[in-house]
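User: tokens in, sequence out, please.
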């Protein structure tokens, strides 16, 4: 064990906590930063961090620090974040040079989905080899609470489902309320909680922008088996998830899906879509229900196109997908009603997934060792990854480990 380092991180509301140590042997300094996206959305991928000469390195997240001489950076899906910039423009070119330069010592993808997006983004970049040499995959981490299963002994006579997500359309809120509607039509004992500020529309990249598109879905919030909680503090959300049979994350686009891993930490399996990073830890019949969607080559949700979101065809495609997913979800959920013998293995699998892949202790050990290695590297030399430390396998450890030890036949309604 070497000396204690001083590591600067962004003092944001909560995102950085998922990618940095929850408890570290080093001194973690939460620093103010300048969110350039408030000046222009085109500049969301860069920032200036509060200067401190005593800092050994910066661990950045999504935003590239322009004034740091030695940093590592974690990212969710694309790096640099240059969605609104011309690919060959001066700003985008400079952003790429910052992460290719010697000052950027490591690039940490939150998922293998993010890694694929990154490699695809830089496929024609002359510095692709340099960038690939720095690339690591490390899932987010959370504090796994020492809580017993709140639903132990429950007979599952009525299934309780909880949807959590500010972006109501993108995260699967429409699917959740349609599940409730179909449960009433089929006379099924299913109750749905909605924790959402109901943000929809043009600023959400997956949402149709046709006027009034989401009105039929928000009207379903008044159904007798739906309770809309609005926004809740995190501790209240965790209690609600822990007292649910399933969390719903039938998302059309999620860089990871933090609500899913927080749900699993509460012993609660997830009903989700097989999109983006979710397939790396959501295993059908092991720790939840995984619904298929049509994907792009990188594993993102396929749709008619961002620029067509105002067209009738896009609205129809989104509506049909919501209908299909809700129908398949109800078919799958019906099997678990009144069947605690089927629910119990899912709940055990969910908790085991959280403990195995997302626990804060192993993440802190990994990151602390990485900080130490990087701090003593000379910034002028190329980054050389140590395979014993910087593991980046082509798939999640879950595929080779957890699923083999906990898998069970998927219940069928047939």
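Assistant: Sequence out:
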């Amino acid at each position: 064990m070497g000396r204690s380092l001083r590591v600067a991180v962004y003092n944001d509301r909560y995102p950085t906590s998922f990618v940095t140590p929850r408890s570290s042997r080093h001194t973690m300094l939460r620093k103010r930063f300048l969110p350039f996206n408030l000046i222009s959305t085109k500049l969301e991928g860069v920032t200036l961090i509060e200067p401190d000469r005593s800092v050994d390195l910066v661990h950045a997240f999504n935003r590239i620090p322009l004034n740091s001489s030695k940093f590592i950076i974690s990212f969710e899906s694309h790096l640099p974040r240059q969605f609104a910039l011309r690919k060959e423009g001066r700003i985008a070119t400079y952003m790429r040079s910052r992460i290719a330069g010697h000052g950027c010592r490591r690039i940490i993808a939150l998922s293998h989905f993010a890694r694929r997006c990154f490699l695809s983004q830089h496929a024609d970049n002359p510095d692709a080899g340099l960038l690939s040499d720095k690339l690591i995959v490390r899932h987010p981490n959370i504090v796994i609470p020492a809580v017993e299963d709140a639903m132990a002994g429950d007979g599952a006579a009525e299934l309780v489902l909880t949807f959590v997500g500010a972006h109501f359309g993108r995260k699967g809120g429409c699917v959740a309320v349609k599940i409730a509607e179909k449960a009433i039509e089929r006379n099924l004992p299913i109750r749905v909680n909605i924790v959402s500020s109901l943000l929809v529309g043009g600023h959400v990249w997956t949402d149709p922008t046709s006027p009034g598109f989401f009105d039929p879905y928000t009207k379903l919030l008044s159904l007798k088996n739906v309770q809309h909680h609005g926004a809740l503090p995190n501790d209240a959300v965790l209690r609600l998830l822990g007292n649910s049979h399933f969390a719903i994350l039938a998302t059309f686009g999620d860089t990871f899906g933090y609500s899913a891993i927080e749900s699993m930490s509460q012993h609660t399996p997830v009903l989700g879509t097989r999109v983006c990073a979710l397939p790396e830890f959501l295993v059908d019949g092991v720790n939840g229900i995984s619904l298929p969607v049509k994907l792009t080559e990188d594993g993102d949700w396929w749709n008619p196109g961002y620029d067509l979101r105002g067209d009738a065809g896009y609205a129809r495609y989104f509506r049909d997908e919501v209908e299909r997913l809700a129908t398949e979800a109800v078919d799958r959920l019906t099997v678990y009603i009144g069947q605690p013998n089927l629910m119990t293995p899912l709940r055990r699998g969910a908790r085991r997934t959280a403990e195995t892949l997302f626990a804060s202790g192993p993440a802190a050990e990994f990151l602390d060792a990485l900080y130490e290695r990087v701090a003593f590297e000379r910034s002028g030399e190329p980054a050389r990854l140590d395979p014993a430390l910087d593991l980046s396998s082509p798939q999640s450890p879950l595929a080779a480990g957890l699923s083999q030890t906990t898998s069970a036949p998927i219940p069928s309604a047939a």
